[in-house]
């Protein structure tokens, strides 16, 4: 049999995510985050490879697998949201990749939940988070929100939670636009406590060679 696809987790020929990597994904510990943000997976192992494959190698089909894990692990069906939106990446990054990975993940999650997905946030011009130190990341990007009347209950999706600055800025922009009932989630979390160990991983580079300070 000739395989034209390989596993996004281990590169074995065959499915988008092989059986062994799917098991690793569902059995990974769930990150413990401070505040209202929830994350489904640690940015490590199979989840890390799958997200980097989506961002840097155009492995878009893995978004459906990640979305399924997010909905199931965070029990999002119980949140009863009206629509899903995302924290957009910078225009230059999105143009270079040909897509916004957070949008793809948000739309996949919306399909799982059976609710609409709409763009409610626009990213203002500023430096990309990629390649910045942890201290620089804490400043976060700037967003402007789109007003929605009547204001719905919104699920806000980000791909990787690091310092929380992106989701904090996105929440503020949505509130300024009149959308205050927001459920913020991340597909994975980096540099956060997982069990008894703290991991410091740079989420925006395929090699992960530079640890977040």
How many helices in DSSP terms? 7
The count of β-strands is 8
Class computed from helices, strands and strand pairing: alpha/beta
Helix content: 25-40%
**Inertia-based shape:** globular
SSE string: HEHHEHHEHEEHEEE
Low-confidence stretches: 127-137, 193-203, 205-213
**Beginning-to-end CA distance, first to last residue:** 46 Å
The major pleated sheet works out as: 4 strands, parallel
Number of domains: 1
Shape-level CATH architecture: 3-Layer(aba) Sandwich
**Within the CATH hierarchy, at the fold level, what is the topology?**
Rossmann fold
Round the Cα radius of gyration to an integer and report it.
16 Å
Beta-strand residue fraction: 15-25%
Q: What is the top-level CATH class?
A: Alpha Beta
- Strand numbers in spatial order across the main sheet: 1-6-5-2
The overall pLDDT average reads 84
Describe this structure in words.
With 213 residues, the chain is an alpha/beta fold. It has one domain: Rossmann fold, CATH 3.40.50. It is 33% helix and 16% strand. The protein has helices spanning 19-27, 45-57, 62-73, 91-97, 101-113, 134-137, 165-176; strands at 38-42, 83-86, 121-123, 143-145, 154-161, 182-189, 193-194, 197-198. The strands form 3 sheets. Strands 1-6-5-2 form a 4-stranded parallel beta sheet, sandwiched between helices. Strands 3-4 form a two-stranded antiparallel ribbon. Strand 7 (193-194) and strand 8 form a beta hairpin. Helix 3 (62-73) crosses helix 5 (101-113).
């Amino acid at each position: 049999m000739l395989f034209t696809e390989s596993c996004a987790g281990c590169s074995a020929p065959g499915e988008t995510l092989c059986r062994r990597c799917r098991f690793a994904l569902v059995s990974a510990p769930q990150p413990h985050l401070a505040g209202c943000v929830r994350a489904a997976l640690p940015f490590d192992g199979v989840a890390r490879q799958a997200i980097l494959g989506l961002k840097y190698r155009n492995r878009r089909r893995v978004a459906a697998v990640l979305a399924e894990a997010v909905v199931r692990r965070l029990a999002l069906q119980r949140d009863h949201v009206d629509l899903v939106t995302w924290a957009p990446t910078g225009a230059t990054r999105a143009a270079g990749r040909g897509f916004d990975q957070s949008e793809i993940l948000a739309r996949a999650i919306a399909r799982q939940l059976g609710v609409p997905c709409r763009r409610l946030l626009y990213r203002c011009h500023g430096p990309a988070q990629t390649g910045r130190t942890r201290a620089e990341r804490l400043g976060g990007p700037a967003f402007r929100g789109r007003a929605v009347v009547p204001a719905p209950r919104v699920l806000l999706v980000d791909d990787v939670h690091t310092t929380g600055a992106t989701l904090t800025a996105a929440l503020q922009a949505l509130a300024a636009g009149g959308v205050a009932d927001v459920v913020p989630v991340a597909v994975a979390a980096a540099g956060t406590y997982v069990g008894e160990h703290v991991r410091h991983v740079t989420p925006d580079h395929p090699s992960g060679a530079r640890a977040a300070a």
